[in-house]
C-alpha cells in the first residue's frame, strides 16, 4: 500500500467514499450513478487543486517519498543489457552510487546515478543514498571510460547530499566532488543529468555538470535541505516549510531561473503512483536530449556546457 502524505488526505478520503458507494451500489442493487458521478467530478477538481498547485513543501515531501522510483528502477524500465561496474580502482565500491554500461534504444550509453534504499536494511547498505568519495571517483572513472569509447552519459540525481562523516572527509570528500565538477566540464561526449528525487548540495552537483539538466516535476535541487537552511537562518528546523518557499528549490522555480532545461511530467500524485508510466515520461525526455546533443561536435558539446553554466545567475558590477 502506497504511503499517504499529509496534504493528500482529502483526496484519499474522497476516493474511499467513492469506492464505498460503488460497492454499496453493486451489492444492494441501488442506482447511485448520479451521486457517484458528482463525487468523481469533485475528486477530479480536488486532485487538480492539490497536485497541480502543490506548494514547495508539498513537493519536498513527494521528492522524499520512500516508494519513489530509484535509479535502479528506471534502469530496469528504460535501458537494456545493463552491466553494472564496481569500484573506483583506488579504495573500494560505494553502493550509494550505481553505474555501468547499457543500451538505450539500441545506443550504447553509460548510466550513473545515486541509489537509496527502499527499506531500512537496503538504506543501510546504500548509506541512505549519500555517497562517500569512492562513489564519486567510481562515477568519474565511468565517465572517462564513456568519453574514451564515445558513449553518451546519463546521470540520475537523487541524494540528500554527500556523506559528511569523518571517514569520508579523511578520504577526500571535497576533493572528489571538486574533481568531478572539473572533469565533467570538459567531457567530449553528451552529458544529460536528471534530478529524479532530492538533489542536495555538492553531492548532487557532482553528477550535475551536464549539457542538459532535467527535473522531474516534484523533485528538488538545492544547496542545502530546507531543514538545514531553517536551522542556519532562524535557529529552528521547524520552519523548514517557510525555508522551502524562500529557497526556490522546486522544478518550476529552477526552470524559470534557467538552471533547468526541461521539467519532466510526473504521474498524478507523484512518480511513486505509477512508476512504469513515469519511466515512459523520463525515456521520452532522454530521447529528445540525445537527439539534440548527438548533432553537436566534441568542441560544441564542451562549449555548450561552459556557456550553460556561465549564463546562470545575474551579475552586477
From TrEMBL:
Question: Entry's Gene3D superfamilies?
Answer: 2-enoyl-CoA Hydratase, Chain A, domain 1
- Superkingdom is Bacteria
What this protein is called in its record is Acetyl-coenzyme A carboxylase carboxyl transferase subunit alpha
What Pfam families does the annotation carry? ACCA (PF03255)
NCBIfam families per the record?
A: accA, AccA_sub, PRK05724.1
Keywords, comma-separated and alphabetical: ATP-binding, Cytoplasm, Fatty acid biosynthesis, Fatty acid metabolism, Lipid biosynthesis, Lipid metabolism, Nucleotide-binding, Transferase
Q: Name one GO molecular function term.
A: carboxyl- or carbamoyltransferase activity
Q: Which GO terms describe its cellular component?
A: acetyl-CoA carboxylase complex
Lipid biosynthesis as a keyword of this entry, yes or no, is yes
Q: What is the lineage of its organism?
A: Bacteria, Bacillati, Bacillota, Bacilli, Bacillales
Q: Where is the CoA carboxyltransferase C-terminal domain?
A: 38-292
The pathway it acts in is: Lipid metabolism; malonyl-CoA biosynthesis; malonyl-CoA from acetyl-CoA: step 1/1
The UniProt entry, under InterPro entries, shows: Acetyl_CoA_COase_a_su (IPR001095), ClpP/crotonase-like_dom_sf (IPR029045), COA_CT_C (IPR011763)
* Reaction(s) catalysed by this chain's protein: N(6)-carboxybiotinyl-L-lysyl-[protein] + acetyl-CoA = N(6)-biotinyl-L-lysyl-[protein] + malonyl-CoA
Oligomeric form and interacting partners: Acetyl-CoA carboxylase is a heterohexamer composed of biotin carboxyl carrier protein (AccB), biotin carboxylase (AccC) and two subunits each of ACCase subunit alpha (AccA) and ACCase subunit beta (AccD).
The subcellular localization recorded is: Cytoplasm
Gene Ontology annotations of biological process type: fatty acid biosynthetic process; malonyl-CoA biosynthetic process
Q: What is its EC number?
A: 2.1.3.15
Role summary: Component of the acetyl coenzyme A carboxylase (ACC) complex. First, biotin carboxylase catalyzes the carboxylation of biotin on its carrier protein (BCCP) and then the CO(2) group is transferred by the carboxyltransferase to acetyl-CoA to form malonyl-CoA.
Give the originating organism: Paenisporosarcina antarctica
Amino acid at each position: 500500500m502506497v504511503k499517504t502524505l499529509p496534504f493528500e488526505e482529502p483526496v484519499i478520503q474522497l476516493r474511499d467514499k467513492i469506492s464505498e458507494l460503488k460497492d454499496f451500489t453493486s451489492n444492494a442493487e441501488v442506482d447511485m450513478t448520479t451521486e457517484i458521478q458528482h463525487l468523481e467530478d469533485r475528486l477530479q477538481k480536488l486532485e487538480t487543486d492539490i497536485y497541480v498547485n502543490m506548494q514547495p513543501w508539498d513537493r519536498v515531501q513527494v521528492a522524499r517519498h520512500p516508494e519513489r522510483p530509484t535509479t535502479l528502477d528506471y534502469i530496469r524500465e528504460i535501458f537494456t543489457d545493463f552491466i553494472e561496474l564496481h569500484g573506483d580502482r583506488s579504495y573500494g565500491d560505494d553502493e550509494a552510487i550505481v553505474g555501468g554500461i547499457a543500451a538505450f534504444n539500441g545506443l550504447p550509453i553509460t548510466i550513473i546515478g545515486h541509489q537509496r534504499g527502499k527499506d531500512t536494511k537496503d538504506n543501510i547498505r546504500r548509506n541512505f543514498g549519500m555517497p562517500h568519495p569512492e562513489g564519486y571517483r567510481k562515477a568519474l572513472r565511468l565517465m572517462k571510460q564513456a568519453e574514451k569509447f564515445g558513449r553518451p552519459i546519463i546521470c540520475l540525481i537523487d541524494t540528500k547530499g554527500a556523506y559528511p562523516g569523518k571517514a569520508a572527509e579523511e578520504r577526500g570528500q571535497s576533493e572528489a566532488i571538486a574533481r568531478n565538477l572539473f572533469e565533467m566540464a570538459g567531457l567530449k561526449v553528451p552529458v544529460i543529468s536528471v534530478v529524479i528525487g532530492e538533489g542536495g548540495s555538492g553531492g548532487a552537483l557532482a553528477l550535475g555538470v551536464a549539457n542538459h539538466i532535467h527535473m522531474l516535476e516534484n523533485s528538488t535541487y538545492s544547496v542545502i535541505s530546507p531543514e538545514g537552511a531553517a536551522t542556519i537562518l532562524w535557529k529552528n528546523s521547524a520552519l523548514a516549510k517557510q525555508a522551502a518557499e524562500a529557497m526556490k528549490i522546486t522544478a518550476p522555480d529552477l526552470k524559470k531561473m534557467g538552471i533547468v532545461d526541461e521539467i519532466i511530467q510526473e504521474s498524478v500524485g507523484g512518480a511513486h503512483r505509477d512508476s512504469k508510466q513515469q519511466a515512459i515520461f523520463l525515456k521520452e525526455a532522454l530521447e529528445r536530449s540525445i537527439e539534440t546533443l548527438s548533432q553537436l561536435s566534441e568542441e560544441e558539446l564542451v562549449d555548450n556546457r561552459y556557456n550553460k553554466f556561465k549564463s546562470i545567475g545575474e551579475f552586477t558590477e
